[in-house]
Amino acid sequence: MAALPELRSTRSGPPAVNPLHESGGPDDALVRAAQRGDRAAFGLLYARYSRMVHGLLLARVPFSDVADLVQDVFLQALPRLSTLREVSRFPGWLASIARNRAADFHRRVKPNEEFDEASASAQTEQIASSTRHSSHSRAEAHAVLDAIRSLPDAYREPLILRLVEGMTGPEIAARTGLTHGSVRVNLHRGMSQLREILGRKTSPPAGGAL
Amino acid sequence: MMNDDYLWDASGTPDPEIQRLESLLADFRQADRALVLPVEMPAAPRGILGLLLRMPSLPRLAAAAAILLALGGTLFFSLRPKHAQDTGPAWDVTNLQGAPQIGTTTIAANQAPGKLHVGQTLVTNGDSRASLSQADLGEIRIDPNSRVRLVQTDPNRKRIQLEVGTIHAAIWAPPGTFVVDTPSAVAIDLGCAYTLQVAPDGSGTLRTTLGWVGFHLNGRDSFIPAGAMCSTRPELGPGIPYFEDSTLAFREAIAQFDSSSQDSPARSAALNTILSEARAQDALSLWHLLSRTIGPERAQVYIRFAALVPPPKGVTRGGILNLDQSMLDLWWNSLGLGEISTWRFWEQSASPQPSPNTQQLKLKKQSFLQDAR
Predict the structure, then answer these.
(1) Which residues of chain B neighbour A82 with C-beta distances below 8 Å?
(2) Alpha-carbon gap, residue B315 to B328, rounded angstroms
(3) Options 3.40.1010.20, 3.30.300.10, 2.40.10.500, 1.10.10.10; CATH of A150-201
């Protein structure tokens, strides 16, 4: 679990509301508290949802830009939180802000240029600094990420949340506001398409024997 | 055979391929990073979304006033036989005002939401408003004097039919999921919030406030980004979209062009006005005009479009004049109004063949037109 965010809080201790004493989903009380200006509550929401936001952004923008955009998304959400009428909609609401932030990123940078992770990462050397994998594995990782990104939104999002961010299907449903059924179907279909793409990339070229 | 349990919740027998992908992709996982908040938590801003959703009709909003919420959906109607079902996935219906009805059942205020099942129709009279919502989807506000039928509710496709009236949609489902049929066009959510009106004669108007919407009928497509609107007419389908802050002369010329026949002097005059009044931002309209014009007209549009927004690398004059789709898509993407691949995916996944319900759609249009006389 991510560490609690840095807060220059004017109060100490946990949020004033006890989630067990309020009706609705497990995070509804946190959202209500954050709407009332509780910094610790918003910090907890960040801790719980930043991985989801990271995954949704990773599905759309270069890895080197994702971390900063995660911060942007939450800082955009903060002043708008009070306009969220139904607090149970927070997961889907936050997901939509993340998707729009990604779209905005592309409009502001180079909207008519597609990116691929291999070239983007080569410029930053962010992945290259990892000691976990060889250069061959890093290249393959880039290719797999690009393959996932080539899938429709409904498939690439849950696949990245599952395969990259390590979230389970139930967690993905809870954090994105989707139903278990939708997430499970999309994971299954997305994985099928991904297998097909990866299978085409590794298959030997067709050719007739003499 | 793929181990679905392991993919779903990492239970059961581990799938070696999935495990390998997890290990391979681990370096892309989020690293711990603190969120630095402002010293003072912001005061509650004006409730823009609440104001929007409470209004009976959507006022004109500049793109800069786009609301935080979700992606709009395109509304896409598919007609199906009207068999009301009391079982199966249902959407929640909340009474906002008056006495909205599902069949003969009135949805009362201050009570638990009603349920709208596939095949059922939600009706609001002149004094009623309602809210339609579904867990995976978002929220749709129904204005007075409206009829909305639930057509489909699957994990990846949510469809309603707006027979008449006005809806305001704020959608957070993934792009391409939410679709609305109207008598004169199909609207597909590509990530936005928008208002859609359908008149008794079947004509309609769509105004996008966030993201963008695709409007489609019989091979004619219109894409409406935030700050823009588009009219649609029975039999003709969606017209040329335009930004609301374009000049009055421009907007009037668009309307004239859409309603004029191919070789009429009025159409030629309208096109001349469109081209002379167009700003760089109006490239939205010029892009659509390319496929709505032929021969010398199209060449005129290309010249003006290219002067305002130079075509990106890979786009040639010859290709555009021949309506090369890949080049049109490149030029569209360069406008920064929305990634067209989302639309192309929807196009490929939608049925290419007219469904039996298309005949029902035509009959319904005729009914609307007869009622309007």
Answers:
(1) 44-45, 47
(2) 8
(3) 1.10.10.10
pTM of the full predicted structure? Answer: 0.53
Of residues B152, B79, B144, B80, the one with CA closest to residue B117 = B152
CB-based contact, A170 to chain B, within 8 Å: yes
Nearest chain A CA: its distance from B14 CA (Å): 13
Radius of gyration over every alpha carbon of chain B, rounded to an integer in angstroms: 23
Distance from CA of B126 to the nearest CA of A (A): 25
Nearest chain B Cα distance for residue A169, angstroms: 5
Burial of B350 (0-12, 13-18, 19+ CB in 10 A): middle
Distance of CA A22 to the CA centre of its chain: 28
Q: Which domain holds residue B96?
A: 49-239+339-373
Confirm or reject contact between A43 and chain B (CB < 8 A).
yes
Of A112, A193, A196, which to mutate for an interface test with B (greatest number of B Cβ within 10 Å)? A112
Question: A122-156 pLDDT, tens per residue?
Answer: 544 444 444 455 777 888 899 999 999 999 888 99
**What confidence tens digit (pLDDT) does each residue in A61-105 have?**
999 899 989 999 998 898 888 888 888 889 999 999 999 888 888
ipTM for this model: 0.78
Residue B207 sits in the same domain as residue B183: yes
